[in-house]
């Protein structure tokens, strides 16, 4: 049957449809829409794998509990005492959702027994990776050469287009003259593949391995877990490893610079352990009844451990003899951080919940009543005190909403920079750290950002922000061998890795 002739209206309609299709094809709308749709699909965040926990069978019948009041009986206690205070010195009965048993073993724990993953073969993968890093890396030469060139970095190395929301400048909020910022700082970015939830719960400590050949991160949480994230791993299923060698909050992690197969960790349970990848075990180094709040070592001295224990005590532990060589009472309350001067390792800084940060000379400290070289006072607890890379300044972070900068030939000059440090109960306290020179301090922001403070300008000059950052960053570490590589950890077990574009 022959087709009927088109009317003028139908012919005009077909011409319009054809013209519109040609216009859409010329603008490439369909291909652009497909590209945008693929780009906006949310990438799944990397996370650790927890082994299944078997529920024990109930051996006794379930009894319905009824209060004394409903049973018409008087109370059997007077309630909480007036001086009741929740304290981390007491280890909770159940500290981890992964393993109910408490690893308070007065002896070594094998890495296999401490492993919390669902595939025990992954433990061997991590051991092999750490041993390979220890053999390849010569940090005493490579790191120093790279860090000495921080001030000589050329603009073109870090040149690149900034991503939307990567940096927020606060220069317009102050009449202070703003100096030109470093190009690498402007280019810092947070990529989706550099975001991972590596462990459950609140992260207390995050540390880079001091390796120039591989980016490996170690972190400890409040449950006694230690996680390792191999950022450069090509296999996403084999890049996060979770262990539980402790029974309480991790207070310190030390990766040995010249023997990265050995990693020290301290805990609120009073234990200090050494993870030895060669022996595949967590060796017990020290145990005490007091809480260990902080852990540190002198630069280029792996024979001694310095740790804060109990109320204001500092202990020096000789690793070779397995005994305490020195101990002092330096503060009226717990010591939160211990830092050593890079130019003179005998100069040490401690900070405390008693509201002070003190600078000491280890060569002139008496046993009975040590005298400080300088005391920096805050109105509330001081959660961190770190020497700058050059050793010429000390940065303190306090709950009184100030970041203190102490400098001068004899550390006689102290200035306070306002910063909101009130994180509340459920978020780890902020601890500002230095970057790769004395130019900037990095610290968490309650608006889910990273504030960059300039000691020279006495103000926050920039805030690093990203849509990928879904939680408040609390604890930080700067990669010792890669300028611009910054790790930030949250109270939800996430780690964000900022890198230059």
Automatic annotation (TrEMBL):
Swiss-Prot/TrEMBL GO biological process terms: DNA damage response; regulation of DNA damage checkpoint
GO cellular component term, pick one: nucleus
Domain of life: Eukaryota
SMART domains, A to Z: WD40
Keyword field contains DNA-binding: yes
Keyword Transport appears in the UniProt entry: no
One of the Pfam families matching this protein, by short name: WD40
GO terms, molecular function: DNA binding
WD repeats: 331-370
Keywords: DNA damage, DNA-binding, Repeat, WD repeat
InterPro entries the record matches: WD40/YVTN_repeat-like_dom_sf (IPR015943), WD40_repeat_CS (IPR019775), WD40_repeat_dom_sf (IPR036322), WD40_rpt (IPR001680), WD_repeat_DNA-damage-binding (IPR050853)
Transmembrane segment boundaries: none
Listed PANTHER family: WD REPEAT-CONTAINING PROTEIN 76
Entry function: Specifically binds 5-hydroxymethylcytosine (5hmC), suggesting that it acts as a specific reader of 5hmC.
Membership in a protein family: Belongs to the WD repeat DDB2/WDR76 family.
Name listed for the protein in its UniProt record: WD repeat-containing protein 76
Organism phylogeny: Eukaryota, Viridiplantae, Streptophyta, Embryophyta, Tracheophyta
